[in-house]
Amino acid sequence: MPLKTIQAWKDLPAEARGASVALGNFDGVHRGHQQVIAQAAKAALAGQTPLGVVSFDPHPRRLFRPTEPAFKLMTHGQQARALAGLGVDVFYLLPFDFEMASFGDREFVEKVLVEGLGVKHVAVGFDISFGRGRSGSAELMKAYGDEYGFTVSVAEPVGGEGEEKFSSTGVREALRDGRPEQAAHILGRPFAIEGVVRRGQQLGRQLGFPTANVEVEDYVVPKLGVYATRTRLPDGREVPGVANLGNNPTTGVVETRLETWLFDFDEDLYGQIIETDLVAFLRPELKFDSLDLMIEQIHRDEQAARAIVAPAF
Asked: Which is the catalytic residue, given 15, 107, 181, 259?
């Protein structure tokens, strides 16, 4: 059954209620999040209920701190695909507005989870907080479950051997430090930027390496520089490449964007949505004194990227 996305919690029909849910923001759907969802899945199987995930749009941080730099790890489309891959039936992407922000922890449970969604089970992480002032906790959720008649499970911290717990903050830090491999380790897959291919200056095409340009928009901005990449096209094909993530200091400063040269590929992608994995960081973004020097470096970058994402056999 395909994943169903529901963007409301009031006046839901009976068939949209009664799930076993995982509750959280789940930005990145990383390996720690996957543990919480697995707890909900276990309860859904035992209780023969749908498996749901409850998250919020916008992220509460965006409502309370709107001027903070972009920090998202995925679009809602990427989030939905990741959840579908984990067997989730229903994605409750709830509008987080000032009404919901005003609810205390009891009000949130009573109005949203019980009266709104009619939950049968709630899985949370050990460090969950909910309600006005972040007053709710995992222990409080257990108490409310006993009171309102739903079961509760709490996922313990998950981390690699000798590592801190997997977290969205850890992913962001790794990306900002230019360590996409560490971000991928926490996520369980490479970090990927998805967006519509926009028409740029077309200088790359003139110089022999046409690029597919995608704005970074609400994503956290990884370390600016050159990356070995893999790009998924709308038809499912995956193409290796090399990309510059930056502002183009040599040819004219622009808003931060990802410019990807897809190897051995020459098709029109303008207006199409592509998704590009940042596989490995090759070097920081540079400003060149001439186009010739830039071209020489791009070909060196190509060879370095090919060795990683398109090795010859």
From this structure: 259
